[in-house]
Design goal:
Layout: E1 4-7, E2 10-11, E3 14-15, H1 17-33, E4 37-41, H2 46-53, E5 60-65, H3 74-88, E6 92-96, H4 99-111, E7 116-126, E8 129-136, E9 141-145, E10 153-157, E11 173-178, H5 223-231
Parallel strand pairs: 1-4, 1-6, 4-5, 5-11, 6-10, 7-10
Antiparallel strand pairs: 2-3, 7-8, 8-9
Helix pairs in contact: 3-4
Length: 232
């Protein structure tokens, strides 16, 4: 078992900014442990995102391909990543601490009888053992955590903990990885993503206006008045 696997989040070919921070953490850890670093991408647009990721110093960029991975589902991601992990046996699996990762990563770790250390903001190597630093109580306390037993070890990286501009450039090969999935294994049906309306509300067109006494504006936008008009 060896190597660092960074599971990156992308949408329609665009990398989540926290993915690059998680990749920077993986590069740093790989350099300190002298282990190769790999990246993995899933979902529609992964091929486009992989082109951007391949410009960094990595052993390989894996694209997990299957029609059932086009739209995100926790079942699909867990099943696909389990197959990748079984094939490559990474020591560490790092992920960005996004909402999507919070949804599937604990399930992925526990499905392999492992735990996920979340909100990691740093690490150090002591006597060959990796010590992770994570924050508790809204950042008021920093705690040191280390793993016992065999890997793979799972950790999610908090936003802003590592700098994306510290990524070492390089040329990485892109590898398509076929996974085996069946529709019956996917227990959730993804719906169209919610998109907040960009249309501004014209408060001056309202037949009535209410001043809440706390800064609610009659003209323009903002305050309690807009909330009332938005929801009728």
């Amino acid at each position: 078992m060896s190597g660092i696997l960074a599971v990156l989040e992308q949408r329609e070919g665009q990398l989540h900014k926290m993915s690059l921070e998680a990749l920077a953490a993986a590069q740093k850890l790989g350099s300190e442990l002298r282990e190769p670093v790999y990246a993995a991408l899933l979902g529609a647009g992964a091929e486009t995102a992989a082109q951007a990721v391949s410009q960094f110093q990595l052993a390989a960029v894996h694209i997990l391909s299957h029609d059932l991975l086009a739209a995100y589902t926790p079942d699909g991601y867990v099943l696909a990543l389990r197959q990748l992990i079984a094939a490559h046996s990474p020591t560490y699996v790092l992920l960005p601490h996004t909402y999507q990762v919070r949804d599937f990563a604990p399930r992925l770790a526990t499905s392999l009888d492992r735990v996920l250390v979340s909100d990691v903001v740093g690490h150090r190597v002591e006597n060959g053992k990796v010590v992770l630093v994570r924050q508790l109580f809204q950042g008021k306390i920093a705690s040191d955590v280390h793993f016992n037993g065999e890997g793979p070890y799972f950790a999610s990286v908090q936003a802003g903990a590592f700098r994306a501009d510290s990524l070492a450039a390089g040329t990485a090969k892109i590898e398509a990885v076929s996974v085996v999935l069946e529709a019956a294994q996917i227990r959730t049906k993804p719906q169209e993503r919610f998109r907040e309306s960009a249309r501004a509300i014209d408060l001056t067109a309202a037949p009535y206006a209410h001043n809440d006494g706390r800064g609610g504006e009659v003209n323009g936008s903002g305050g309690f008045a807009e909330t009332l008009l938005r929801f009728g």
